[in-house]
Amino acid sequence: MKHWKKILIAIILLSILTGIGYAYYIWNKPARNVANERAIKITATALYDSFAHDEQAANASFLNKAIEVTGIVNNIKKNQAGETVVYLQSSDIVFGVNCTFKQPPKAINKGSTITFKGICTGYLSDVILNEGILIK
Amino acid sequence: MQAPLITDHKINGMKKITALTCFVFSFGLTAFNQTYLTRNGNISFYSHTPLEDIKAQNNEAVSVLNIATSSIQFKVAVKSFHFAKTSMEEHFNTDDYMASSKYPKAGFDGKIDNIAAVDFSKDGSYAVTVSGNLTIRDVTKPVTAKGTIIIKNGKPTATATFTVKRKDYNVIGESFVQKKIAEEIQITVNCVYEVQ
């Protein structure tokens, strides 16, 4: 009988600990890291055009996915939070792909071609990619 | 008699063309300075309860400010809101809250009611009232907010803080977290514009 009780207490304690551990994991779940994800490879123009032509279909294909986009750098700036933003050229005269870096990248030149890997959060005037890294 | 008449016509015609050219040219010049744009504005929100404070930042807001029509528009990608806690961010995007896969965008389309109070050519801080329609989760409701337009080196910055009742926009959430989420969510706009 005593032995049986001990086992029961051990099981209860173990489940409580697992519960606490799981809650702790959820609370401190690490941020999504695009570097570890397999990405959809596409050019900036093709990505922009997919959204411009059929936004719903493009949302289904790209929204919340890791995207590795290659394009010509139209402009580089810092956003209001001090993060580096690169605008990639597309078929549109003003808008294109809006890429925000998670960490400041090494120097990027206007007019150069870069490959950026980030998460697609949607399409406004630009296609938005953020939490990204420079691939090359 | 004939000759001077023709000349008069020619002169009148030339005057008209000159006037038209001047008009088109000046209109073109003013129009050039009438639109301001940002592709990376900041919009954040804040929910305060005694149990928990929730904050999120979005640095990819698009906003267009047109002086001629006094219109002002904002658009955000819902998935661009980032939280300190990953689990909060994941919850925020689920169907219980923002359903961001179904409704990836939110936006505001309105007017600056007292745009005449702002001198866009003079550095300073100007109090404005903005009214228009706010759309979240495809629910559109009228909203009025007080804000400030700051002109610095010819560039305007628009700031405003206002509250929305989340349930008006069907942002409900699970029943067991209700005490942790404020009924009224504070939204803060802070957009630095470029001349378009």
TrEMBL record, chain A:
Pfam families in alphabetical order: tRNA_anti-like
Domain of life per record: Bacteria
Name the record gives this protein: tRNA_anti-like
TrEMBL record, chain B:
Pfam families hit by this protein: YceI (PF04264)
Residues annotated as domain Lipid/polyisoprenoid-binding YceI-like: 33-194
Entry superkingdom: Bacteria
Entry-linked PANTHER family: PROTEIN YCEI
Protein name, as recorded: YceI-like domain-containing protein
